[in-house]
Design goal:
Blueprint (H helix, E strand, L loop, with lengths): L7 H4 L14 H11 L13 H12 L6 H10 L23 H14 L3 H13 L18 H5 L6 H12 L3
Helix pairs in contact: 2-3, 5-8
């Protein structure tokens, strides 16, 4: 499930370029990897266009088994923090105090995937409040009552309440 990291790979082709081989995109490389892993029998990809389906089928037609060397090359580039990315499933979107948790979690991915500094995150947070993911939010991160409902629903078992606590400190200027 989520072979394209909930859309993070196609949205950040440049940052994930290390996945790609010659003359392919990071998205194509990720699909090729999933198709070429003998341990994986089904991939659940959220295609939105026929062209995306056609591209995946073309990759499947020429896919080769992923070797141990390829796995090791990728492993050397990937930190353990990628086990903690939000896949954007939205299962956490039932907050009793109306915090837009999926939006905050997409913002969280920038910190986890790209190692942005706290200052960068504070600046980006201002943008997201005015123009991005957090426009029109009903509640801020500081409204979290740590009920755990979002964490119980999270398929990645992320510590969402802890993340919201960090964001709340940034929102308050700390």
């Amino acid at each position: 499930m989520n072979p394209l990291a909930g859309g993070a790979i196609p949205s950040h082709e440049k940052e994930f370029a290390f996945l790609a081989g010659p003359r392919e995109t990071a998205t194509q490389a990720a699909l090729r990897f999933v198709i070429g892993c003998p341990e994986i029998s089904v991939a659940l990809v959220g295609f939105t266009t026929r062209a995306q389906v056609d591209e995946a089928c073309a990759l499947a037609d020429c896919a080769a088994v992923v070797t141990a060397a390829v796995r090791e090359r990728l492993r050397s580039h990937l930190g353990g923090n990628l086990n903690e990315i939000c896949t954007g499933c939205g299962y956490c979107d039932d907050c009793p105090v109306d915090i837009p948790i999926p939006a905050y979690m997409q913002f969280y991915n920038d910190k986890v995937m790209f190692g942005k500094s706290d200052d960068d995150m504070r600046k980006a947070l201002g943008f997201h409040h005015d123009w991005g993911l957090l426009v029109g939010r009903k509640a801020s991160a500081e409204a979290c009552v740590t009920c755990g409902k979002c964490e119980s629903a999270c398929t990645q078992h992320l510590r969402i309440s802890k993340w919201l606590e960090t964001v709340a400190a940034w929102e308050s200027g700390k």
